[in-house]
C-alpha cells in the first residue's frame, strides 16, 4: 500500500513536482525544508514499486534528483541568511542616514551621529567613493557610472541596484549583491550570493570557494586579481535556476581579465570623462 492516495497519478504528473518546487522556494526555515525533503524521499521510494516504462522511471529519477538539489541549495541559502546576522541585526536606517551623493567628494558627505544604525549610502553617480565606516554592516543602493571601494572592512555588505560601475569590496563576512548590470565586481569575503546580476564580471577571493547565484545571466566568473592562479582552487558556482545542469548557460569561467590596478590612482570625488569611458 502506498503512502499517498492516487500515487500513480501524482508521480506521472509534472504538476506535483512544480508544486514541490514552489514549496521549496517559499520555505522559510530548515524545519519546513526537511519536511519537504522527507516528501521527496517517500515519493522516490514509492516510485520503485510502480510498473513504469524506462522513460517514466528516468523522468521521475531526474525530477527527484532536481528536487533534492533544490532543497540542499535552499538549506545553504538559509544558513547564509542566518550567517548575515551573526553579529547584531541590520536595523532599518533612519531617514537622516540616507545620503545622496551628487558628484561630491567624501569630505563633503556628512556622517550619521547614530553609530548603532547601519548607514545607507544611496545615489552614488559619476564619482569614486571610498566607504569608511565603523559600523559592522554596510548597505549601499543605487550606483551608476561610479567606482566604489571599501576603505574599512565590515562584517557584512549588501548592495542593491547598480550599473556601469566598478565595485572593489573587502568583507570579513558575507556579501549580498542584488540587481546589478554591466558591472565589474572585485570581492574578498567569506560568503557570496548574487541575485539578478547580468552582463557583469565577478572576480572573487571567497573563503569557501563557492558562490551562489539566482536569476543571473551572462556572468564572467574568475579569481581575484591578487591571487596566484596556479595555486587557486576552482570556484564553485551553485545556480539556483539550473541546479543540475552539466553545462550552465548563465555564467562562464575566465582565467584572464583586464588590468584594473588603475582604479587605485583615481581620487575620490567626481570622475573625469576619460575615467568614465573606462567603466563597463
Characteristics of this structure?
disordered N terminus; alpha/beta; 280 residues; 13 strands; 25% helix; 13-stranded mixed sheet
Write up this protein.
- This protein is α/β, with parallel strands linked by helices.
- It has 2 domains: 14-79; 121-277, Pectate Lyase C-like.
- Helix content is 25%, strand content 34%.
- The chain has helices at 7-11, 14-26, 30-47, 54-84, 273-276; strands spanning 99-102, 120-125, 127-131, 137-144, 147-150, 156-170, 174-189, 191-206, 210-214, 217-223, 236-239, 251-253, 269-270.
- It is elongated, with a radius of gyration of 22 Å.
End-to-end CA span = 61 Å
Number-wise, the strands total: 13
Helix content: 25-40%
* Beta-strand share of residues: 25-35%
**SSE sequence, one letter per element:** HHHHEEEEEEEEEEEEEH
Largest sheet: 13 strands, mixed
Number of domains: 2
Shape: elongated
Tell me which CATH architecture of the largest domain applies here.
Answer: 3 Solenoid
Q: What integer is the average pLDDT?
A: 76
**Class from helix and strand fractions:** alpha/beta
Assembly type of the chains comes to single chain
CATH topology assignment of the largest domain: Pectate Lyase C-like
- The helix tally amounts to 5
Task: Pick out the low-confidence regions.
Answer: 1-15, 80-119
CATH class of the largest domain: Mainly Beta
Amino acid at each position: 500500500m502506498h503512502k499517498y492516495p492516487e500515487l500513480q497519478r501524482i508521480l506521472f504528473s509534472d504538476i506535483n513536482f512544480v508544486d514541490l518546487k514552489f514549496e521549496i522556494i517559499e520555505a522559510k526555515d530548515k524545519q519546513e525544508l526537511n519536511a519537504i525533503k522527507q516528501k521527496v524521499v517517500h515519493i522516490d521510494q514509492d516510485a520503485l514499486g510502480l510498473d513504469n516504462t524506462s522513460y517514466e522511471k528516468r523522468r521521475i529519477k531526474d525530477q527527484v534528483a532536481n528536487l533534492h538539489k533544490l532543497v540542499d541549495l535552499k538549506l545553504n541559502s538559509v544558513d547564509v541568511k542566518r550567517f548575515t546576522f551573526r553579529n547584531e541585526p541590520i536595523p532599518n536606517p533612519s531617514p537622516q542616514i540616507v545620503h545622496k551623493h551628487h558628484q561630491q567628494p567624501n569630505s563633503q558627505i556628512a556622517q550619521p551621529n547614530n553609530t548603532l544604525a547601519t548607514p545607507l549610502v544611496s545615489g552614488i553617480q559619476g564619482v569614486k567613493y571610498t566607504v569608511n565606516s565603523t559600523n559592522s554592516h554596510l548597505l549601499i543602493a543605487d550606483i551608476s557610472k561610479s567606482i566604489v571601494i571599501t576603505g574599512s572592512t565590515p562584517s557584512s555588505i549588501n548592495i542593491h541596484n547598480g550599473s556601469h560601475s566598478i565595485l572593489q569590496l573587502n568583507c570579513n563576512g558575507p556579501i549580498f549583491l542584488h540587481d546589478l548590470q554591466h558591472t565589474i565586481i572585485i570581492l574578498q569575503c567569506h560568503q557570496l550570493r548574487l541575485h539578478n546580476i547580468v552582463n557583469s564580471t565577478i572576480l572573487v577571493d571567497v573563503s569557501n570557494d563557492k558562490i551562489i547565484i539566482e536569476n543571473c545571466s551572462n556572468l564572467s566568473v574568475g579569481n581575484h586579481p591578487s591571487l596566484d592562479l596556479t595555486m587557486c582552487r576552482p570556484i564553485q558556482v551553485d545556480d539556483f535556476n539550473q541546479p543540475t545542469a552539466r553545462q550552465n548557460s548563465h555564467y562562464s569561467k575566465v582565467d584572464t581579465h583586464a588590468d584594473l590596478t588603475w582604479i587605485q590612482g583615481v581620487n575620490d570625488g567626481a570622475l573625469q570623462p576619460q575615467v568614465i569611458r573606462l567603466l563597463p
